[in-house]
Amino acid sequence: MVWPEMALAFDPQVEHTAQLTALTAETQAHIVIGYVVENEEGFRNEAAVLAPGGQFLGVYGKSHPMITSGEPRTTTAGTYPVYHTRVGRMATMICFDALH
Q: 35-51: string of b/e by CB count within 10 Å (b at 16+)?
């Protein structure tokens, strides 16, 4: 399952984690969760991959913000994880990153 960019306004590894891991267990599906967090560390527009077993496989930070719309740079940009899953390899990207 893939959720849209900024679907949540919190980090799923910190908040509502039990509900999300229960959803992966129930569906036996990977979930790519788009979320945004703004705190003292800066703006983070990210996608986390949650495996059916309840473990977070990693986080991808948007690398190319829409500057013309006022979107700030993501502090976690520049990491491009690839995940090896039972259904094959998986990676994430967000919105404008597809054009670069």
A: bbbeeeeebbbbbbbbb
Task: Compute the distance between CA of residue 28 and CA of residue 97 in angstroms, rounded to an integer.
Answer: 28
Q: What is the pLDDT of residues 29-64, one digit of tens each?
A: 999 999 999 988 889 999 999 999 999 999 999 999
- Cβ neighbours of 12 (radius 10 Å): 23
Rounded to whole angstroms, the Cα distance separating 94 from 100 reads 11
Beta strands in the chain (DSSP E): 31-39, 42-50, 56-61, 82-85, 88-91
List the structure tokens of 75: 């502090």
Contacts of residue 100, defined as CB under 8 A and 6 or more positions apart, other chains included, come to 63, 64
